[in-house]
Predict the 3D structure of the following.
Amino acid sequence: MSKLQPLSEAISRFVHDGDTVYAAGFTHLIPFAAGHEIIRQGRQDLTLARATPDLIYDQMAAAGCARKVIFSYMGNPGVGSLRIVRAEIEAGRLEWEEYSHFGMISRLQAGAAGLPFMPMNQTGATDLEAANPDIRRLTDPYSGKEVITVPALNPDVAIVHVQRADAQGNAHLWGIIGEQKEAAFAAKRVILTAEEIVDEAIIRSDPNRTLIPGFIVSAVCHVPFACHPSYAQGYYDRDNDFYLKWDKISESPDSVKAWLDEWVYGVKDRQEYQQKLGEETLERLRVPPLQSVPINYGRY
Amino acid sequence: MTNLTYSSTELMIVNAARLLRNGDVVFVGVGQPNLACNLAKRTHAPDLVMIYEAGIIGAEPARLPLSIGDPTLVSGSLSVVSMYDIFANYLQRGNVDVGFLGGAQIDKYGNINATLIGTDYAHPKVRLPGSGGAQEIAAWANRCYVITPHQKRRFPEKCDFITSAGYLDGKGGRERAGLRGRGPVAVVTDIGLLEPDETGELALTALHPGKTAEEAIANTGWALKVAANLRFTEPVTEKELRILREELDPTGIYLKS
């Protein structure tokens, strides 16, 4: 059964006010297009979970979508401070819940595996344990030593961008695979956006590359260039210039509002956004091919 | 004796690179640690295996990576794994020799704060990015290094918040907390090197050529002990500077910052 639909329809059907949203992707394949569509549709009171909130949650927080963030590293990667989320936290306007990367990802792993919590070895960093009551201790019933536990995270909706998927949502992704698979299995609903929609036969030609099976996916949307200013391995490069530019834009509420007006509210969809970026930027982000050697699955 | 001129950033990177051993599996961060590791790989440690937090094993970046997830780290690497796997199978399991750490504050016992300035977690005076992977790297890598400018505000006697564990409250602190790694075995500053003494307290063990113990003491927030066998680090060489400036960071993105 095809789950293909426009992104606007998928967001409208599967993301509701008050939801816990996990927009996946550790620096790679960050689903900016879906984030912008959530902003356009005016969703509110969302709990935004991501190991690295990145610019996508800075923008969503600026647009008033967020009630709370759950994170493990709140910075503008490679640049510095994530100004809006940081200012909202410092001003007490945004709730937050904090883990280390491993704590955050262990939460998703537990959620994905249908477990209530995940144990981790101790790190000695007890200040975070004191600050976050959901980080707890348990005695290992085998050795008698203490381990740290974090509760499962089961987001209402995960948004995952992939290089290619078929119309049912069977998805291939490669490059940095971060926490996409875990987020998809942990979530109650999964919105998939893809650079390319391909025939099921292409998916079946390389089944080891399928990290997400279609039967856990709620919606499939064909959204090329969905990750800018993040990137899609083999498709386009990370726009580091924009990450630097955001550092300036996010210095003042006026320039943030102007940016949102022009680049989010002012465009209909990602296609229009991409056109608006212009050929010069697209050319700068183009990447020459480097093919892997095909493998032989054998005909049995 | 040469009369090479170099910045304090270059001085720190060169000295951090020299601490790496050939064959080390090293958890690399972007910026200065990345330059130090790539410099080591191109000089005395060709078999260094560079692992990046984003899940990349054995990276051989063709250009200077500008973020921890730069695609240049992926192309041509040995393996790419999920975030859960990199932290569980590589770091927690004990497969990482070296980790690099950084933060706003490093205290007397090598504990690091990258979370907040202020004493009330719920009402931070300045909110910093937080742990990322630092909490686990500090606990589980066999040994850790810190690169930081030597400034009093960066070296308080006690951190406002311990994001990642050094020697905690001193001798035996790591053992009591059940940590597998040896902790921060060296802090590289622009004045010299700090290394833990037998109580876990960071002491001045080396000075860069031309620097003095008085400078180090004046720029440290606790009564810094000076090792009895205080030594000088080897001068920065022309080759090291050439690799850094011409091959690794030709536009000076990190060298000039």
Summary: Residues 101-113 of chain A form the longest helix (13 residues).
